[in-house]
Specification:
Bound molecules: thymidine-5'-diphosphate
Order of helices and strands: EHEHHEHHEHHEH
CATH topology: Rossmann fold
CATH class: Alpha Beta
Distance between the termini: 9 Å
Largest sheet: 5 strands, parallel
Length: 234
Amino acid sequence: MTTAPRQPGLLVSFEGGDGVGKSTQLRLLATWLEEQGHRVVRTREPGGTTLGAELRRAVLHGDEMGPRAEALLYAADRAHHVDTVVRPALEAGAIVLTDRYLDSSVAYQGDGRALGAEEVERLHLWAPGGLLPDVTVLLDLDPVAGLARLEREPDRLERAGLEFHVRTREAFLARAAEGGRWIVLDASAAVDVVQAAVRERVAAALAERGADAGERRGGDADASSGERSAEGLP
Ligand code: TYD
């Protein structure tokens, strides 16, 4: 499995079905980390860049398309996002919080669209040059409840049907069962209960990486290098 050289910063991805509350949890975590003096970059996929916003519009609100075209649009978005936003921020020692990353592609396109998890994973590891998160928070929720929480018109993916979303949820849970970078939380719990567990895990990851001091504003970034582990991947 190709992996990317380790960066001084920390990459945390939030994953899960539609309507599970990823953006709320991400925002609360960002505020907490910033209050402690960490440099935080909040971003998302698809659409974390100007080009990404165009790709997001095409894939979520554009013409119908086949599953391969869909997978490639998400891959293009991720490649550009990692090159221009995520990797530079990690190199500068920031904590990057991304609302979705490559596990969404494996779950939605690999299993949801039935393209095959392994093939999609290979493509989606190639696109960001093998960069994997240090921590992946899976907010798990019954898709019936998640889709019911949406307060606007559903996009192309949200309209894919309940069976699609059930497959996607199962795919996320199967990947998370590998352990490693994953933490699985019950998204039906109260927001502050979920947030407390997220903070605990991220604090542990920071301590483990010895990155705490290096990532504080004005501190010297720890430029240690090494291989990022491919834990959690088949
Ligand atoms: P998201 O931004 O989480 O939705 P919103 O903010 O509108 O609630 O994600 C957009 C949709 O794109 C979501 O249905 C999941 C899907 N998606 C994929 O199918 N593959 C991917 O690789 C990514 C990143 C997202």
